[in-house]
Amino acid sequence: MLDRLYFRVFPAIIRTPQKPDSYDFTHLTRKEFLETPELFYQKPDMMPDFALTGVVTTDGVEVVDVKFPSPVQLKYRENDTVHGLYFKASGKKDFASVILLHGWGRNNLWKEKKIAMNLARNDINCFILKLPFHFERTPEGTWGGEYAITGNIPRTIEGTRQLVMEVRVVAAWLRNQAEKVVISGISLGGMMAHIAMAAEPFDAGITILTGGNNAGIIWEGIATESVRDDIIKAGITREQASDLYRIINPSIMAKHNKTKNLLMINGLYDEIMPAKFTLELWEALGRPKIKWYPCAHVTSVLFIKSIARDMIRFIHGNAD
User: Fold this and answer.
1) Rounded to whole angstroms, how far apart are CA atoms 287 and 280?
2) Fewer C-beta within 10 Å: the chain N or C terminus?
3) In degrees, to the nearest 5, what angle opens at C-alpha 257 toward C-alphas 251 and 262?
4) Do the bridges between strand 124-129 and strand 81-88 make them parallel or antiparallel, or are there none, so unpaired?
């Protein structure tokens, strides 16, 4: 009920109808991409230069602003520089580093920062990687995340490819600093984390409030009505969208999953990521460890401390 109330009060409305520049999608639907995702989500040949600025120490945890040029340059200047926040653990030896991806349309990172601080206090670094078209990466004249999912499906796919390649860059950077690298994500960020696991092996994966089947979530989830309408206005049906989304559909990419140590954390009453699509992904992944909280999407905020504790236990190998 609270999820429905929240999105009535704060609807995610696409301001200007979006549609593909071309309806020739063959460059995104090639068979070899679906058979070998690494061909689509290629690891860059050279590491970009990381700029670390704005170091702040909070409760013994160093928080650093990080930016670097994206290995994929789309046509939006603001979006082509990657931004992140790196929470550096203060322990004697960094046990692990987590790459944490936030959800769609977020206007703050309160939940992610809360998780990151809890991880850092337990010898686990955390790099909050800001998704394409969000925060500093938001194109002028749009709201944060507006261009991430619209009727311009090729842009959605290209943005996902951009993010996964950025995740692979950050993973390589973090592997020089800790024993383990873990991928994690919340909501849309969780879906992207599962796509990243199809291209890059991680020591563990933890996803929160997420599922598979992009078209199903857009058509049936209560937060994406304007996205569904925009896709329909672009002349694309649910069946066509589902076909186009295959290369970024976590349920389809699950057969390529390269991370065997998985934990899925979800809400029993989530109507944004309906449970049936979570279960679809869970089945496709071979039924990994899953934990259900008695919450919806929005009310998951009440369990952030518990979720962070689950993550810490899982990473340290002490999951129940």
Assistant:
1) 10
2) C
3) 90
4) antiparallel
- The string of pLDDT tens digits covering residues 8-63 is 666 778 989 999 999 999 999 999 999 999 999 999 989 999 999 888 888 889 99
2-315 classified as CATH 3.60.15.10: no
75, amino acid identity: K
Given a contact cutoff of 8 angstroms between Cβ atoms, the answer to whether 208 and 214 are in contact is: no
**Cβ distance 293 to 268 under 8 Å?**
yes
Q: Note the pLDDT tens digit of each residue in 219-246.
A: 999 999 999 999 999 999 999 999 999 9
**Residue 227: closest CA among 60, 12, 77:** 12
Closest by Cα among 91, 55, 63, 57 to 312: 91
Rounded-to-integer distance, Cα 128 and Cα 84, Å: 5
What are the b/e assignments for 242-268, b being 16+ CB within 10 Å?
Answer: bebbbbbbbbbbbeebebebbbbbbbe
Greatest extent of the chain over all pairs of C-alpha atoms, in Å: 57
The reply to whether the predicted model has a pTM over 0.85 is: yes
Measured CA angle at 66 (ends 60, 72), to 5 deg: 150
